[in-house]
Amino acid sequence: xxxxxxxxxxxxxxxxxxxxxxxxxxxxxxxxxxxxxxxxxxxxxxxxxxxxxxxxxxxxxxxxxxxxxxxxxxxxxxxxxxxxxxxxxxxxxxxxxxxxxxxxxxxxxxxxxxxxxxxxxxxxxxxxxxxxxxxxxxxxxxxxxxxxxxxxxxxxxxxxxxxxxxxxxxxxxxxxxxxxxxxxxxxxxxxxxxxxxxxxxxxxxxxxxxxxxxxxxxxxxxxxxxxxxxxxxxxxxxxxxxxxxxxxxxxxxxxxxxxxxxxxxxxxxxxxxxxxxxxxxxxxxxxxxxxxxxxxxxxxxxxxxxxxxxxxxxxxxxxxxxxxxxxxxxxxxxxxxxxxxxxxxxxxxxxxxxxxxxxxxxxxxxxxxxxxxxxxxxxxxxxxxxxxxxxxxxxxxxxxxxxxxxxxxxxxxxxxxxxxxxxxxxxxxxx
Length: 431
Ligand SMILES: [Co+2]
Description:
This protein is α+β, with helices and mostly antiparallel strands. It has two domains: 276 residues, Creatinase/methionine aminopeptidase superfamily (Creatine Amidinohydrolase), CATH 3.90.230.10; 63 residues, Arc Repressor Mutant, subunit A (Orthogonal Bundle), CATH 1.10.10.10. Helices cover 28% and strands 21% of the residues. The chain has ten helices and 19 strands. Strands 1, 2, 9, 10, 11, 12, 18 and 19 form an eight-stranded antiparallel β-sheet that branches. A three-stranded antiparallel β-sheet has the order 3-5-6. A hairpin with a 2-residue loop joins strand 5 and strand 6. Helix 4 packs antiparallel against helix 5 and helix 6 packs antiparallel against helix 7. The longest helix has 24 residues. It binds cobalt (II) ion. Cobalt (II) ion binds next to strand 12.
């Protein structure tokens, strides 16, 4: 989920659609609910997909197996509470090479093991959910069906009795073509995925507030139309990950990303388009229950000489576009989050106060969307929600788009800056 820095003011202007939504109350799925249809299976021995992924051999075995198994909690596959580690990388700067071998720093790292295991558990859920998404999503499905498929899987793997303990870390981004981010269906949405669409799938999983933020791009176009933009963005994100580290300046990461991204171009209908970084979308550091926590990781050089620091966790994400390389808010808003440090602001009405209590008890400062609010039983809440937005208590994050007819792609991973090494915790064999 990207941070959109320069558009903050514009977002305020983009007023909420006040059309009332009559919502259906949806029951919380129980732990034994089957999610996502017929293909739900798990290895009988509960083996992890892990960063190294499922082997072909195993896939064949799965295909043959007649026994369909339900998705169950991730904990049942890891009863000892030790989850697969992500990809380890050494820090890039020469002055930090001592870190790799320092016994003292390794000891210091082990002191924080609970925190790292929470991230790794979220990452393993993320890998399994996205594997399922990649094999189950097909053109012709509605955005609502796709979102439900992903979100029900997250909820079942997390198997938490409360949304603040573990589960969805932010609304599932399903942004098509020129829409770069922050699109998820509101109830009643009838949008259907087409074969030629370029879809950014941005999934958030949290465990005790440790949020894994990771995204990929998919299409069902078979003539390779989008190969260049997808390759450019994947490589740019991997460059950002490689360059990131303790004492590295944020500006320098942006410069490295741009150099890789903008070495690509793409042909569309006989015309060649340069692939540009979307310069007002950024990676960000991640705090407990806070998806955008102060530091911004640019994807072009921006003069920010702030350094990354030991113990920090970042979402490294890049966006490429065949359009202007600049996004603006457009369309009906679905994403919201309560702002931090707003306890001193009084909600402007009784209904706004009640809605805020509901938001606090279900999401705290985690981002959410209208569908999640409706699951808690809320209906006809838009007037009160608009009041909370205008009071500055809740922030809205409308879809952000490049020019119509352009194509945008995104890849994203969460990285952990351990004292001795960095860990790309959400790495899988898919991306
Ligand atoms: Co993000």
